[in-house]
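Researcher: Here's the sequence for the chain we discussed earlier.
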Amino acid sequence: MSMSVPHPRSSLLLLFSSIFFTYFPGLVISADVTLSSIEIFTTHEWLRATPTVYFLCKGDNKTDLPDVKKPHVFYSFKAEESWQPLTNFSGKKCKRCGFYEEDRILSDDVFDEWELCPSDFTAPDGRYIHFKEKEFNASFLCPECLSFSVVSISAPAAENHNKKGMNVAVVILLSVLVSTILILGMVAAKKYWQKKRREQDQARFLKLFEEGDDIEDELGLGTII
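Model: Thanks. This is the structure I predict for it:
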């Protein structure tokens, strides 16, 4: 079994996008989606020998696929055709897209409709395959869509980094607050101790002075003087 090796261009694009969106997360890019290959398994229009198959995303102009004419034929493309790209993304939001076949009488027939998202293009080369049983098998390319995956990964990382930064700031603030309270408490305790000591010294001095007066009275020194 052979292993697929990431294309150097895609690897460089992914690396560049990772660095770019890490430092410029607010910027938006446009990612083109091209059709790489398709094989339809059936047709729906009975009155037309050659079907008219087209691709359409809601809100976009439809893209006719003039080369897709017969079922059970594998069609591959180079992304250089005049009708490429099929659509483009300017953000992570999905689009409602599908393959259709024109119907002359009734509404156009639907091969399949689905939500096409930038996050679908997860292969190393930005490839995405969509298969609808009994209808078609198609592969799309969007190398630039890998950038949106990088943004999605970087955003939670940045959020976690911000949370860690906030936690560190809270710890520092609490440490400073506790240290300030301890210092103020020590200063207040020291002043209280000094005040208490002065009061004790004053009380001791007054007591000594009163004892001196008592001794003088006993000896009669106060009367002689």
